[in-house]
Request: fold
Amino acid sequence: MTPHEKEILKKKFGATIQRIRKDKRLTLRQVSASCQLDNSKIAKIEDGKFNVALSTIVELARGLGIAPSLLLAELNQEF
Amino acid sequence: MTPHEKEILKKKFGATIQRIRKDKRLTLRQVSASCQLDNSKIAKIEDGKFNVALSTIVELARGLGIAPSLLLAELNQEF
DNA sequence: AGGCAAATGGCCTAATAAGGCCGCAAATTA
DNA sequence: TAATTTGCGGCCTTATTAGGCCATTTGCCT
Reply:
C-alpha cells in the first residue's frame, strides 16, 4: 500500500464515520460520551488524519451504535 | 476499552485471520506475497500480538482475497 | 446582539505499530 | 534420510497512534 493509497483510505474511512454519525443525528460529544474517545480525536478521524487501530474502530462502532464490520463495508469495492 | 478487553480483541482478530487463511489452504508466505506484509508479521498478528491499523486490516484482506469487512464480522456479537 | 453548543485545531507524552531482516525448529515432501 | 518448506520468534529503528487537555471559531437559536 503506497502512501497515497493510505491517504485515500484514511479519508474514505473518515467520511464513512461522519456520514453515519450525521445520519444518526449525533454530535461528536454524544459519540465520545458513548465510547470514551475524545471528541476532538473523533473530529480528526473524520477528517482522515489517522490510520486508526482495530481497537479504535471497535470503539467508534460502539459510540455510533453499529457493528464494527459496517464501518469497513464501503471499502470493499476499492481496496 | 480496558487493556484486558483490548487483549481479547487482538486475540480474537488474530484467530479469525488464521482460521480464514487455513480454510483457504494458504501459507504465511503465500499471504505475504499477495500483500507485501512480512510473513513473520502476519504470524504475530495471528497470535494476537498487534492492535493492527486500518491499513493493515485492508492489506490482510487483500492477501487473503476477501473483503475487509469480513475480517471484522465475528466481532459484532461481543464488542 | 448575546448566549450556547458544537466543531475544530493545536499541543503534548508514552506506548506501540509499521516495516523489515535473520535464523531456527518442526513439519512436510521427496 | 535428506531436502525443502513452513511457522514462528527475536531484534531493530522510525513513524505514528492513543489518549487527553485547552483555546478558538463556527453555527445555531432566542
Q: What stands out?
A: The radius of gyration of chain B is 12 Å. The CA atoms of residues 12 and 75 of chain B lie 8 Å apart.
